[in-house]
Design goal:
four-stranded mixed sheet; alpha/beta
């Protein structure tokens, strides 16, 4: 068996960019339906409801955990007055199927961007407009996915947002409880 490649794709998202989500079918008879989601330079082929749910959950969590911490828009770099020969933009295409591990890391000191990681893929979101572009594409994809995979297999984006809001409140409460307990422990020692 060949050794798998150790690959990792990192995409930096800044400013407004195009986004699109659409269902596709692998065969003329409609079988093999899957989702194609493109946001900026990233195109994802989600082959089933599990992968769609996990990736959509990651972007719902990113919206809840990091939107308020990002600047609205980064200043645009000035272009030189010299004419350029041309510009090339890469695009990353990935295929996902089944459960996907994901992680969202809000901006912190020394890391001014929101980081959304899904296994082999990391998207670093630098401003609110870029986050809105990503979230809009995954919300649209979620609506299509409910139709092609079925309501029982694919939750709506609103439901995923609500789950992430509840999760964020529980995590904040647990953090406050730990902080209070540490304070009580110090008071007993005195």
């Amino acid at each position: 068996m060949p050794k798998p490649w150790d690959m990792h794709v990192v995409v930096d998202a800044t400013g407004s960019d195009g986004c699109r989500a659409r269902p596709r079918s692998a065969h003329r008879d409609g079988t093999g339906a899957h989702m194609v989601v493109q946001a900026g330079p990233l195109r994802v082929y989600a082959l089933d409801a599990l992968s769609m749910t996990d990736l959509t959950s990651a972007w719902a969590a990113a919206h809840i955990r990091g939107a308020h911490l990002l600047p609205i828009e980064l200043p645009r770099p000035t272009r030189s007055a010299q004419p350029t020969l041309g510009i090339a933009y890469p695009i990353a295409e990935v295929v996902v199927e089944g459960r996907q591990r994901w992680n969202v890391r809000p901006p912190q000191r020394g890391r001014p961007f929101l980081e959304v990681g899904v296994g082999w893929l990391t998207v670093r979101v630098h401003d609110r407009i870029a986050l809105d572009t990503q979230v809009r594409s995954w919300a649209e994809a979620s609506a299509f996915a409910v139709r092609i995979f079925g309501r029982n297999r694919m939750p709506s984006f609103d439901a995923l947002l609500e789950q992430q809001q509840i999760r964020a409140v529980r995590e904040a409460a647990a953090h406050d409880d730990r902080r209070i307990e540490r304070g009580r422990g110090r008071g007993r020692d005195r």
